[in-house]
Structure formats: C-alpha cells, structure tokens
Amino acid sequence: MTITTIGFDADDTLWHNEDGFRHVEERFVELVSPHAGRGVDVAAGLSATELANLRVYGYGVKAFGLSLIEAALTLSGGSVPSSVIGQLLGEIRDLLEAPVRVLPGVPEVLAAVSDTHRLVLITKGDLIHQTRKITTSGLAHHFHDVEVVNEKDPETYASILARLGVKPEEFCMVGNSVKSDVVPLLTIGAHAVHVPYPLTWALELTDASHLDYDELSSISDFPAWLAAQ
Amino acid sequence: MTITTIGFDADDTLWHNEDGFRHVEERFVELVSPHAGRGVDVAAGLSATELANLRVYGYGVKAFGLSLIEAALTLSGGSVPSSVIGQLLGEIRDLLEAPVRVLPGVPEVLAAVSDTHRLVLITKGDLIHQTRKITTSGLAHHFHDVEVVNEKDPETYASILARLGVKPEEFCMVGNSVKSDVVPLLTIGAHAVHVPYPLTWALELTDASHLDYDELSSISDFPAWLAAQ
User: Does the structural domain B5-16+101-227 have CATH classification 3.40.50.1000?
Assistant: First the structure.
C-alpha cells in the first residue's frame, strides 16, 4: 500500500536541540561540582534525577529546569549558594528563548515531499516551547497537523493515525530516536526511517539491533527513499 | 441552530485547582518574607514575576514552580537559603501529584449531557499534568476529544471547531473564567455559559460587564439551561 502521510519528529530531526541541553549540563557540572562531596558524579546525579522525575514532570525544558535545581540541592547536600540556582534559572530561560536552528536540508526536503504527501509534526515535550519553535521555524506551513504528546508509544501513534484517518501501512515516521520514532511505528505496522543526530539523550538510547528498518545518513536522502517505496 | 457540541473547561470547572495554587502562594509568603526587605510585598512580587514569565513559561504548575524560585531569589536579593528553594520544589511536586478533587455535581452533569451531545475538554496548562488529571479523574470516558492549548483566544477556539467540523452556533463552552471560557466564544459567534468558582486567579480577571451571557450558580443547572435553548 502506498505511503500517503509522513510524520516528522521535531527536536534533532528538523532543528538542533540536544546540543543546547548538553551545554546546560556542562554548566551544571561546573557550577555544582565545587559544592558536591569529593568523588560525587554530578552529571550522573543529574541524569538520575531527570529519570526519577520523568513520570511527574514529563519532557521538555521546564521539566529539565526543575530537575536541575533539585539535583543541585541534593548533590550539594543543600550547600549550593542561591547564586548558582539563579544561574541555572538563567540557563533554562536561555534554552526556552533560543532561536530555532534548522538542520541542513530540512526546508528543501519538506518543500519536496509536501507536494505529494500530507505532513504531520509529532513531538514530545513542553507545549508552549514546542509551539514557539514550530511557529518561529519558518516550517509550520508545510504541516497539516501538529501533535505535541506526552509519550511516543504505540498507543499514542495509533490514536494519532486514527484521528488522521490513515492506516498504519500508509504512514511513515522520520526521526532521530530509534526508541521514539522507529520502534513504536514498527510495532503498529507502520513504516519508519531513522535519521541519526550526532548526540542522543541517555534516556532515548535503546537496543533495536534485532529490528529491520532503514537508516539515512542525512534527511536530504529522504525524498529519494520515499520515491523508491 | 441547535447546539450539538459542548466544550468544558477543566480547572475550577470540573475539579478544584485554584485553591491548591493559593495554598502554595501562602506558603511562599511565609517562607520568603523573612528574607525579603522590610515593606516588600512578596505576594505582589510573585504575581509580577508570573505575569512577566507567561509569554516564555506558559501556564501550569511547572511554569508556576520556576516563577516561584525566581521570585524567591529576586525578592530576597539572593539571600534566601537553599532550604527554602527545596521546600518550594516540594510544594510544586505536591501540586503535580495531588489527587484530582472533582467538583460537586460534575459526574452527574457529564453523564446527562453526554447522552445527547458530543463533549470536548478544552484546557490551558501543562500537557503532562492536565493529561494526568484527566486520566485519573474518572471523567475521561465522557469526552470525544481533549485539547490542551497554550492560550484560549478566538483563533484557538476557531481552529478547534474547524477540526471538529462544528459551526460556532452549534457549540457552547462551559467554564469558570469569563476571560478564557466566555469572551473569546462570543467573539466567534459561539455560545458560552459562565459557572463561577469561588476563587479567580488575578491573571484571569477581566471586565465583561458590557457582554450578554448567562451565568449559572452551579454546574448542576447546566442540563436544564441546555434543554431550554
């Protein structure tokens, strides 16, 4: 059956994202390490806090910000000065207000495939921040629909497809996360293409070596892949 | 034209919300006042911080949490101890994890009107927190659709109605905020019914005395109102 509808992931697929988080993590380590006990792995402590908070805080920059502050307090045994908390808040605001940096080839690919296919944007994260990035990216007009979701699991994708009135075999997802943009689609019988980004968040890592899917080195190769289906 | 579709607001319409925020504001004043300069209006300072951050942080508990911490730092000139920051983080987590307290009459009203009308839930706020409240409320099965939006303005409502395929004159919104649940609906030619909650957030106050709409003292009066249209 022909693919009629393409889902694109947003962060690290259409624009840079993870490098901004990594920058703040590095600042966190610089700022908090002097106040943590000797031998404390401050970066690992932050990751553990993020993972523990995921269920309650969800994804996105504001959740990350609250975890940063909580981890600064716990890892320092409450000894971190309030000036550090202020600097962490400043880093979060900078992330939220940073201009969108669209990845190479993306505008051309969206222009090419939107002539022949219906495009939807499917992203996790913070509703206001993702909306702001979409509306300021200059790419919004290519998308029939934008879905900001809590979790990219098979149920979520199935419900989006039902809402769009498209069968799984008519749908292809394109994204940088095997865990979020590939595995759940194969589970429901849809297509998926992996376009890696140089950095992957620890919580998005997964083992999918047993699965059969295509990986493209650049999103610019996607129109040709699509034409060959 | 007959009303076919009813939109319900969630916070302070279906369940208690504002009282939880008020409780945290009172704790904030207790915790931060001892560290603020004499004569500083700590509650007003918090409101001003929230308003200034609205554009970047959006609505919801996580946004409120980041504003609480920022305001604690600014109002105390950076002198607030980290233990206070930890207590504020704890209050935020409590708000996020608090069980939903459904308002009196709500389950009966939804059961009554869902027999004859299509119901949609339309709420601002934090995606993961609103989703959690909806799924744990025991009310989710009444709703055809759930929309968590950044802003309840005429454009947002118009786009939801278009997606539902319903004309403005066939749609009625029910909610506790004149600013968010009544005025924008009258602007686009839809119906709206105001059901006040005893508390209103300062940023939701508006003057709509020149507008003509019905106000019900209890949501339990809504089925009769609807039958009389």
Answer: yes
